[in-house]
Amino acid sequence: MTDLAIYDMDRTITRRATYTPFLIHCARQAAPWRLALAPAVAGSMAGYAAGLIDRARLKEINHRLLLGYARSDAEMKPLVDSFAEATMAKNIQPGAIRAIARDRAEGRRLVMATASYALYVDAIAERLGFDDVIATRSVRGSDGRLLARIDGNNCYGPAKLAMIKEWFATAQIERGHVRFYSDHASDAPVLDWADEAVAVNPSRALRLLAQKRGWEIVDWRS
Predict the structure, then answer these.
(1) What number of helices (H) and strands (E) belong to the chain?
(2) Chain-centre distance for alpha carbon 200
């Protein structure tokens, strides 16, 4: 049996969300003219807020606007690496570093489970010493380039739990004790499923839920 520590990433390990900053970083580095499309990005966010599109479609639209429809691995690598380095330098919660070190010392397998795109999460997870990543994946075209389309499900809400369970089956891991960390109530399905649920700098909704369910509440900001 394998004991695991599973971490959400945005606002759990990181201080701030990473998806839009990643796209802006790529636009600045590779095609600054795309920053002029910011009004269209704002329009897509308004459409999401109005319920006209879902989170997955919002991601695909903004990916296409700020990064382009198709990118090769060679084009993406310097963008991903520079963003990962910037994230490590300025956007990691101190408490997350301590928790990761503790879980590693306990012999737990470290897994990152996040709605953010694997195309840059993999690089951040590698730098933090994670063993595995469960994240939103991108479709690849026939030429191998990454497309502005989500492959399968956006790793969010109930879909995150389904993807974690699928990962268990694919990796053929016999479940031991599972500790799960998150900042947001959207991860309630995984928090309920875990043996040990930890609310990290929780949103108001998650704080109320954690108090009701008796989950641990921690502050990783200092």
Answers:
(1) 9, 8
(2) 15
pTM of structure:
0.95
Report the chain's mean pLDDT, rounded to a whole number.
96
For residue range 64-94, list pLDDT tens digits in order. 999 999 999 999 999 999 999 999 999 999 9
Q: Considering the domain 2-218 in this protein, what is its CATH number?
A: 3.40.50.1000
Instruction: Please list the residues that pair with 180 across neighbouring strands.
Output: 6, 197
> What are residue 175's phi and psi, to 5 degrees?
-70, 130
Q: Band of the pLDDT at 222, cuts 50, 70, 90?
A: confident
* Residue 221 in tokens: 């900001």
Report how far residue 21's alpha carbon sits from residue 87's, in angstroms, rounded to the nearest whole number.
10
Give the domain ranges of the chain: 2-218
H/E stretch holding 180 reads: strand 175-182
13 Rama sector, left if φ>0, alpha if ψ -120 to 50, beta otherwise: alpha
Structure tokens at 127: 């730098």
CB 185 within 8 A of CB 27: no
User: 132-140 and 109-117: which strand pairing?
Assistant: parallel
> Under the phi-then-psi rule, with left for phi > 0, alpha for psi from -120 to 50, and beta for the rest, what region is 53?
beta
